[in-house]
Design goal:
Structural class: alpha/beta
Order of helices and strands: EEEHEHEHEEHEHHHEHHEE
Shape: globular
Helix content: 25-40%
Number of domains: 1
Strand order of the largest sheet: 5-4-1-6-9-8-10
CATH architecture: Alpha-Beta Complex
Oligomer: single chain
CATH topology: Spore Coat Polysaccharide Biosynthesis Protein SpsA, Chain A
Number of helices: 9
Strand content: 15-25%
CATH class: Alpha Beta
Distance between the termini: 31 Å
Length: 255
Amino acid sequence: MAVETPLFPPNTNLVMACHITGVHDVNRNTTLANDTRQLVKDWAESITAANLKGIIFHNNFSEETCKSFDNKAISFIKIIYDPLFNPNVFRYFVYRHFLQHHIQQINGIFMTDVTDVVLVNNPFTDPLFIENPSALFCGDEPKSLNNDWMIAHAENLRKNIPDYAAYESTFGAETLLNCGIIGGSAFLLFDFLQQLCMIHQQANRENKTAYTGDMGAFNYLARTQFNNQLIHGAPVNTVFKLYENERNDCWFRHK
């Protein structure tokens, strides 16, 4: 996996996203154009406005598009996409690889979707973030884990993870977590990514279903290994898919 490596000063707080094009996007049922600046513009501008550092990992942006943002807040890092995993899953391997080389420079991290998430308020200065260094912060949705979409989404994982059905039974009434926003301390996130990538390597490589498995694997790991450390919902995220564009009391707006 080729990754250009920008250097950051010690204790940098970082927001990361991944934009992989040229392959079928199962969520949109289309193939995203390779070099559309507009798709990441709102995300990049929101990170810049908060005076934070952001990285967009990408496989097809042109040098001209990267330079068009023309600020010191956003770095573009070109990667080589491995089609062994779908883009929703492959991003976690990208983040893990990056942290393997830069974790000593980083304090707090958020990993977010890039085309439908924007930053509203700096999470790293919020007392909730500062006072909970062992917390795993994430997005959520106004529904329970036990819903028809998640049951279909997890078909492949259910076949390959021995206790997956038991987990679904135990946590079925709990809030559905959304992996479009994940954050915490750098070392906590690296531990989480190590475990998440292992799950995908062992249980999601041969996924021939119409679903990516990213939401299933994320909820499984978060609930079974980090449940007592979870902080989700407001003020982390606005209500998913309510398009609360005027809401300014959360850290991230997710659709």
